[in-house]
Design a protein that fits this description.
Elements (H helix, E strand, L loop, with lengths): L5 E4 L22 E2 L5 E2 L2 E2 L10 E9 L1 E8 L2 E5 L24 E5 L5 E7 L4 E6 L1 H4 L17 E2 L8 E7 L2 E7 L2 E2 L13 E2 L2 E8 L1
Parallel strand pairs: 5-12
Antiparallel strand pairs: 1-16, 2-3, 4-11, 5-8, 6-7, 6-9, 9-10, 12-13, 13-16, 14-15
Length: 208
């Protein structure tokens, strides 16, 4: 039986900033080849705003749960031991989301809803279906960079693949997006590898 969650929309975001460890191939001085095989070097302001995506990466992270199991995009994404209570998010500190990123990539928008089952810390069983196609139906990239701060890109096209991240935390499921957004200015003064923002943005919260 699938429980009906109490659904809460939120615009809250993580303020964590991750400096990019390498330059994007779209931002360096080298030429690149487009889908038709034509070499392009023309960097322009982004043509489409808001930024949109047609494929994504995906990962699941669990805290204070037993036996979490998630099936999405035709794959078993996670299948954890039913006898082991996962550590709490608090035990990792306030920046526990810092290392999150999508692992399963090149998922075209959008497969059928993710099927999720787990037991909360109190031992109660839960099941849910999370419909990313509905959550992200406008295919808009969630990020915090104003248009006038986004760096010019090859042919003015945004080609990065954002991550959709599912957090299962005791009785709460949260859906996030993490997207690499090249910026005109360094985010850390003097650091040439900080020419982007890569933040975890909270999109949806469900409580069970």
């Amino acid at each position: 039986m699938i429980h009906k969650p109490l659904r809460t929309l939120t615009a809250a975001t993580s303020l964590a900033l991750a400096a990019c460890a390498h330059s994007s191939p779209l931002l360096d001085g080298a030429s690149m080849t487009n889908a038709s095989g034509k070499t392009v070097t023309d960097r322009q302001p982004v043509k489409e705003w808001p930024l949109r995506f047609d494929s994504h990466k995906f990962s699941v992270f669990t805290y204070d749960t037993y036996g979490a199991r998630v099936v999405y995009a035709g794959q078993l994404q996670i299948d954890q031991d039913d006898d082991e209570l996962k550590r709490s998010s608090a035990s990792y500190g306030p920046d526990y989301q810092r290392s999150w990123s999508g692992i399963h990539g090149m998922i075209r928008n959008f497969p059928a809803p993710a099927k999720v089952s787990w037991r909360s810390k109190d031992g109660q069983t839960h099941e849910a279906e999370i419909d990313f196609g509905e959550i992200f139906k406008d295919e808009r990239v969630r990020h915090n960079v104003p248009r006038d701060e986004v760096a010019d890109m090859a042919n003015g096209e945004y080609r990065h693949e954002p991550s959709i991240i599912l957090e299962i935390n005791d009785r709460t499921i949260r859906v996030y997006m993490r997207a690499f957004i090249p910026t005109k200015d360094f985010q850390i003064p003097g650091n040439p590898y900080s020419d982007a923002r890569d933040e975890v943005v909270l999109v949806e919260t469900y409580t069970y």
